[in-house]
Design a protein that fits this description.
Elements (H helix, E strand, L loop, with lengths): L11 E3 L13 H12 L4 E4 L1 H7 L8 E4 L3 H7 L3 E4 L5 E6 L2 E7 L9 E2 L5 E3 L6 H6 L8 E4 L4 E4 L3 H6 L2 E2 L5 H7 L2 H13 L2 E2 L1 H9 L9 H12 L4 H10 L8 H8 L5 H19 L6 H8 L1 H8 L9 H16 L6 H16 L8 H6 L3 H13 L7 H9 L3 H10 L1
Parallel strand pairs: 3-6, 11-12
Antiparallel strand pairs: 1-10, 2-3, 2-9, 4-5, 5-6, 7-8, 9-10
Helix pairs in contact: 7-9, 7-10, 12-18, 13-16, 14-15, 15-16, 16-18, 18-19
Length: 414
Amino acid sequence: MVHKNQKNISPEIYLKSQHNIDQNLINKNAKDVINYLKRSGYKAYIVGGGVRDLLLGKKPKDFDIATNATPEQIKKALPRSRIIGRRFKLVHYRKGREIIEVATFRTGGNKKAAKSSKGLVLRDNTYGNIQDDAFRRDFKINALYLDIHSMEIIDYTGGYKDLENRRLSCIGDSKVRFREDPVRIIRAIRFMSAMELDCKDSLKADIYGLANLLEEVPTARRYEEVLKLFFTGSASKTFDKLVEYKVLKYLLPATSRYLEEEKSDEKIIHFIKLALKNSDSRVAKDLPLTPAFLFSVLLWPSVVKRIGEIQSSKIKIPLLRKAADKAIREQNSHCFIPNRVESMIKDIWEFQIKLLKVKSPKITSLISHKRFRASYDFLILREQSGVNLNGCGKWWTDIQNQSEHRREDLTNRQ
C-alpha cells in the first residue's frame, strides 16, 4: 500500500562493490528475458525472492522479472510467451521445461481494485512505475530490484538492511496487507523459518490474530502454499511456527486438533518431527521430495485417531481405506489434495499393513512396487519414533540386500 508521503522517494542504490552476488548464479533464461525486453526499449529487473536469495548466497529456484512493459507489450517482445491470470495478469516465458514469470510494475492502494467485503484483493491490473511496484509488495526483503547489467540493487523500502539484520518487516500496515491477501501470513512464517528472521511484536500479533482470514483462500491455493512451506529445507522449524501462531489449524485441522489433545501420543508427534527433519536433510542433499509422502506423514494422526496405530497385519485394508477416505475428505475442505497425490497417500498407508506380513509369498512383488520405497521409509520412521513393529523395519532392510532367489528361499523357509 503506497502512503501519501511516499511520492518521488529516492531509492537506496547498492553498487556491485557493496554486495556479494555471484553473477554465475543468475539464470540464463532470466537474463535472456531481460535482454529481450531491453532491446524492445523497456526496463526490466530481477525482483523479489531471486534477489533475496542471491544476496544470501543461495541459488534461487525462481527468477521473477518486473518491467515497465504491459503484458501485451511483454508478449510481443518475448518469443514462446503467453499472458495468464485474471486476478493479476502475468506473462510466462517458456524455455524447455523452465518458466520465467514476468510482471508489469503495479501500483498498490488502488481504490478501483476489486476487493471482497473483508479486504481481499480480487482483481487489480492497475499499472505504475518501479517505486509504486516496490511499495505494493508484501515484505521489505521482497522489494529489492537487481539490474543485471550494472549489478546495482535498487531498494525503496529498506529491504537490504532488513536482510542484513535478519529482520522481517511488512510494507505498510500488516493488518491491511494480510486482509488484501491472507497468504502473506503463510509467507511470513515461511520466511521467518527458512531465513531465521525475527520481526516486531505487532507483526507477530497480526499473524496470530488474522490467521482466520486463511479460510477465505481457495483450498487449491492453500495446498500449493503448504508445499512451499515444507519443501524449502526448514520444514521442522516451519511446523513449530505454524503451531506457535495457531495457523496449522487452517491448513491441517485434524493434525492441529491431535496436537492439542491431552492424550495425544508422543510417538506420533515424534514421528512427524523425524519425518520433517528427514525432509530437510533431503533438501540439503538436493534430493527430491514428494507431496504424497509429506501429506501421508502430516495426515497420519487423523488415520491413527480413527483406527489406532497399525502394529498388526490383522488390521483389514478396507477398514484402513474407510479411515483414509474420511481423513482426506476432511483435509480437502481446507487444503485440497489432487487425486493423483491422494491415491499415492493411500498406497503408502496400505503398505503399512502389507509390510507387516513378512511371511508373505509376495515379498518380491512388494519390493518392486513403485510405492515400496516411500512406504518402507514411512515404516522406518514409525519404528524410529518408538512404535513397536517387532523388528519389521530391520527385516525389510535386510531382505532388500538379498538376491531375488535368496528372497524366495527365505520366504519358503518361514
